[in-house]
From TrEMBL:
Domain of life, source organism: Bacteria
Organism: Streptomyces edwardsiae
Protein name from the UniProt record: PRC-barrel domain containing protein
Length: 123
Protein backbone atom coordinates (compact mmCIF):
# COMPACT_ATOMS: atom_id res chain seq x y z
CA UNK A 1 0.00 0.00 0.00
CA UNK A 2 1.50 3.38 -0.95
CA UNK A 3 2.12 5.64 2.04
CA UNK A 4 -0.21 8.36 0.72
CA UNK A 5 -3.14 5.92 0.71
CA UNK A 6 -2.95 5.73 4.52
CA UNK A 7 -4.51 9.23 4.41
CA UNK A 8 -7.36 8.28 2.04
CA UNK A 9 -10.45 6.17 2.61
CA UNK A 10 -10.51 2.83 0.80
CA UNK A 11 -12.32 3.11 -2.57
CA UNK A 12 -15.37 1.25 -1.23
CA UNK A 13 -15.65 3.88 1.56
CA UNK A 14 -15.44 6.88 -0.75
CA UNK A 15 -19.01 7.85 0.18
CA UNK A 16 -17.86 8.45 3.78
CA UNK A 17 -15.44 11.27 2.93
CA UNK A 18 -17.85 14.11 3.68
CA UNK A 19 -19.91 12.28 6.31
CA UNK A 20 -19.77 13.61 9.87
CA UNK A 21 -18.39 10.72 11.93
CA UNK A 22 -18.30 12.65 15.20
CA UNK A 23 -19.57 10.46 18.02
CA UNK A 24 -19.19 7.20 16.08
CA UNK A 25 -17.84 4.30 18.14
CA UNK A 26 -14.43 3.13 16.90
CA UNK A 27 -13.87 -0.62 17.04
CA UNK A 28 -10.59 -2.48 16.44
CA UNK A 29 -10.23 -6.15 15.53
CA UNK A 30 -10.27 -7.04 19.22
CA UNK A 31 -12.53 -4.52 20.89
CA UNK A 32 -13.69 -0.95 21.26
CA UNK A 33 -11.16 1.90 21.15
CA UNK A 34 -13.34 4.93 21.80
CA UNK A 35 -15.39 7.54 19.93
CA UNK A 36 -14.58 9.89 17.09
CA UNK A 37 -14.05 13.35 18.56
CA UNK A 38 -13.49 15.00 15.16
CA UNK A 39 -11.99 14.51 11.75
CA UNK A 40 -9.37 16.68 10.15
CA UNK A 41 -7.66 17.11 6.81
CA UNK A 42 -4.56 19.21 7.42
CA UNK A 43 -1.93 19.19 4.67
CA UNK A 44 -4.00 16.57 2.79
CA UNK A 45 -3.42 14.13 5.66
CA UNK A 46 -6.99 13.04 6.44
CA UNK A 47 -7.39 11.56 9.91
CA UNK A 48 -9.70 11.07 12.87
CA UNK A 49 -9.07 12.17 16.44
CA UNK A 50 -10.44 9.44 18.70
CA UNK A 51 -11.27 10.00 22.37
CA UNK A 52 -10.36 6.77 24.18
CA UNK A 53 -12.11 7.66 27.43
CA UNK A 54 -10.67 5.69 30.33
CA UNK A 55 -9.19 2.94 28.10
CA UNK A 56 -5.91 4.85 27.63
CA UNK A 57 -6.25 7.13 30.66
CA UNK A 58 -8.34 9.72 28.88
CA UNK A 59 -5.87 10.05 26.03
CA UNK A 60 -6.92 10.89 22.48
CA UNK A 61 -5.44 9.13 19.46
CA UNK A 62 -4.89 10.15 15.85
CA UNK A 63 -5.99 7.51 13.34
CA UNK A 64 -5.41 7.96 9.58
CA UNK A 65 -8.59 7.30 7.58
CA UNK A 66 -6.75 4.68 5.50
CA UNK A 67 -7.06 2.18 8.35
CA UNK A 68 -10.86 2.49 8.45
CA UNK A 69 -12.16 -0.88 7.26
CA UNK A 70 -15.91 -0.26 7.45
CA UNK A 71 -18.49 2.32 8.48
CA UNK A 72 -21.98 1.42 9.67
CA UNK A 73 -24.02 4.64 9.78
CA UNK A 74 -27.12 2.96 11.22
CA UNK A 75 -25.12 1.76 14.22
CA UNK A 76 -22.88 4.87 14.31
CA UNK A 77 -19.85 2.60 14.33
CA UNK A 78 -16.66 2.36 12.33
CA UNK A 79 -14.14 -0.45 12.36
CA UNK A 80 -10.39 -0.06 11.92
CA UNK A 81 -8.25 -2.83 10.47
CA UNK A 82 -5.81 -3.10 13.35
CA UNK A 83 -5.78 -4.20 16.98
CA UNK A 84 -6.25 -2.14 20.11
CA UNK A 85 -2.57 -2.67 21.00
CA UNK A 86 -1.48 -1.41 17.57
CA UNK A 87 -3.59 1.73 17.93
CA UNK A 88 -2.37 2.30 21.49
CA UNK A 89 1.29 1.98 20.36
CA UNK A 90 0.95 4.70 17.69
CA UNK A 91 2.89 7.95 18.16
CA UNK A 92 1.44 9.71 21.18
CA UNK A 93 -0.98 12.56 20.61
CA UNK A 94 -0.47 15.31 23.17
CA UNK A 95 -1.90 18.59 21.90
CA UNK A 96 -4.41 19.74 19.30
CA UNK A 97 -1.67 21.60 17.45
CA UNK A 98 -0.11 18.23 16.53
CA UNK A 99 -3.07 17.51 14.25
CA UNK A 100 -1.74 20.39 12.13
CA UNK A 101 1.96 19.46 12.38
CA UNK A 102 3.15 17.75 9.17
CA UNK A 103 6.11 16.11 10.98
CA UNK A 104 3.87 14.54 13.63
CA UNK A 105 1.29 13.41 11.08
CA UNK A 106 4.05 11.91 8.91
CA UNK A 107 5.29 9.91 11.92
CA UNK A 108 1.72 8.65 12.51
CA UNK A 109 1.34 7.72 8.84
CA UNK A 110 4.70 5.92 8.80
CA UNK A 111 3.70 3.94 11.90
CA UNK A 112 0.36 2.78 10.49
CA UNK A 113 1.87 2.12 7.06
CA UNK A 114 4.34 -0.36 8.63
CA UNK A 115 1.60 -2.38 10.35
CA UNK A 116 0.72 -5.79 8.91
CA UNK A 117 -2.05 -6.07 6.31
CA UNK A 118 -5.02 -3.77 6.87
CA UNK A 119 -7.64 -6.12 5.45
CA UNK A 120 -11.12 -6.01 6.92
CA UNK A 121 -11.49 -7.88 10.20
CA UNK A 122 -13.51 -11.07 10.29
CA UNK A 123 -16.54 -11.13 12.55
Amino acid sequence: MPIDSIWSYAPDLDHVQEQDLTGYTVVARDGTIGQVDRRADHHGLRHLVVDTGVWVFGRSLVVPVGVVASVEPGERRLTVACTRAEVKAAPRFRTDSETQDPAYLTAVGDYYHRLPSRESPTG
